Amino acid sequence: MRVTGATTRAFDEAVDAANGLTARWAERTDRGTVFSAAGVWPLLAFLADGASGEARAQLAEAVGLPAERAARVARESLVALGGLRGVDAALGLWTSRKLKVHQEWACGLPPHAHRELTGWRRSDRKALDAWAAELTGGRIPHLPVELSRGALMVLASALALKTRWIRPFTTGLASPGSGPWQGRKLAGLARTTALLDRVGVADTPAGQVTDLRVVGTNGMDVHLLLGEEQMTAGQVLKAGVGILAGRHRLVPGSRLPRGAAGPGVRVAEVPAFRPERPKLYASTVAFDIVAEHDLMAHADLFGLGSASDGSAGHFPGISDSPLAITSAKQSVMAAFTDRGFEAAVVTAVEMGEGSAPLPAKKYLKSEVYATFDRPFGFLAVHRATGLVLVAGWVTEPQPYLEVRGAW
C-alpha cells in the first residue's frame, strides 16, 4: 500500500507508538503466549481522546501521544492498516439506548462503526460474537466482553492477517537432543536457502539474540527470535522490537564469524567438489497458539487504572453520562506452519456507569545453520512500515503427529 501526506505521518506515529507498547508488554511476558499491541492501541487512543483528568493522562501515557491528537492518529492509522495487503482491520462501537454519545467524539471513529445495544443480552451477545467471527474468518468466534446487564458501551477492534511463505518449509520429525524439548517428537520445519542474510545476530543489553526472517508473499514477514539460554521471554521479545527499530545492530549471516556465532547459529566452511553458493540451513517447529488476556490485570501498562474507578465518571468527551471501564480483554490466535502464518485478534473494552560427508577438497563453501529447538519468540511484521502486528513466545510446539497446514 502507498499512503501519502498526513496519513503517512499519522501512520508512522502510530507504528512507533504501537511498537513501543509491544516492547513494554513483552517485558511482562513470562510464558508461552501470543498478543497484539496493534489490536489494543487504537482503542486506548480513542478512549484517551474522550477522557479527562487522571484517566486522560494515564491513557495518553500508554498510547504514547498527546490525548488531543490520539484519536486523529488512530483514525488515520486504521484506514492505512486496513489497506495493507493481507491485513483486515476494523473498529466497532456499540452503545446502549440509555447513553447519549457526543457526536463530535463518535464522528472521529471510522465510518459505520457505531451500532446499538438493544438491552436484550442474548441478542446483543449474538450480534457482538457475529461481528468478531465475521472479521476474523471464524478464528475468534466470540467478542471477549462480559456484557454485564449494566453495560452502556462496548468499544472493540478486530485484526486478521495471513501470509504464505515464498517457499514452503519441508516438514519432518524434530527431536531436540538437549534443552526443555529434549526427546520430544515435534513437528519440525526445515528449509535451505542461499540467502545467508535471512538470519542475523544482534548484541543487546540483555544478551545475544538471533533473528531469522521468514518472508511472506504479501508484504509480511515473521521474525523468529532466539536468545541466550538465560534470557527471559520478555528480554528476547523486547530485543526483537529493538532490532526492528535499528537500536541494536544486526550482524547478517554473511558476516558472521566461523563457529558458534550466536544463539542456535553455527557457521562452517566445508569442502565441495566445485564452486557452490553458500547455504543457510534453517530449522524450527510448527506452532499453534491461542491466548486470552485480561488487560485489567496490567491496568498500569494500558493506562486503565483511573479509568476503571467506578466511583466517578472519566469520559466527558464521550458522553455527559458518567462512564467507567468495567472490563478490557483480548482474544488472539497465531499459527505457524510449513505453508505460512495466520493470526487473528479481537480486543474489547466494556464500559458501565461510573458513581503479545566430505568430498574433494579443492573448494570451500560457507554454511550457516540456524536451529530453533528450544523456546523462542516471534514477531509478525508488516515489512514496509515495520509495524508489529502480533508477537508471541513459543513454549509448546505442535507434536509431530498433529502437524497441519494452515490452509
Give the helix tally: 8
- Distance N to C terminus: 25 Å
Kindly name the structural category.
alpha+beta
Largest sheet: 7 strands, antiparallel
The CATH homology group name of the largest domain? Antithrombin, subunit I, domain 2
- Share of β-strand residues: 35-45%
The number of E-state strands comes to 19
Q: Give the oligomeric state.
A: single chain
Task: Specify the CATH architecture of the largest domain.
Answer: 2-Layer Sandwich
Shape: elongated
- Can you give the mean pLDDT? 90
Helix content, binned percent: 10-25%
Low-confidence stretches: 1-6, 356-361
Order of helices and strands: HEHHHEHEHEEEEEEHEEEEEHEEEEE
Radius of gyration, rounded?
A: 23 Å
What's the structural domain tally?
2
Name of the CATH first level of the largest domain: Alpha Beta
Strand line-up across the major sheet:
1-19-18-9-8-7-10
Stated plainly, the CATH topology of the largest domain is called Antithrombin, Chain I, domain 2
Can you describe what's shown?
With 407 residues, the chain is an alpha+beta fold. The protein is 24% helix and 36% strand. The chain folds into two domains: 5-163 and 289-353, Antithrombin, subunit I, domain 2 (Antithrombin, Chain I, domain 2, 2-Layer Sandwich), CATH 3.30.497; 165-286 and 358-400, Alpha-1-antitrypsin, domain 1 (Roll). A seven-stranded antiparallel beta sheet has the order 1-19-18-9-8-7-10. A six-stranded mixed beta sheet has the order 3-2-4-16-15-14, with helices on both faces. It is elongated and about 75 Å long.
Key traits:
seven-stranded antiparallel beta sheet; 2 domains; Antithrombin, Chain I, domain 2; 8 helices; six-stranded mixed beta sheet; 407 residues; single chain
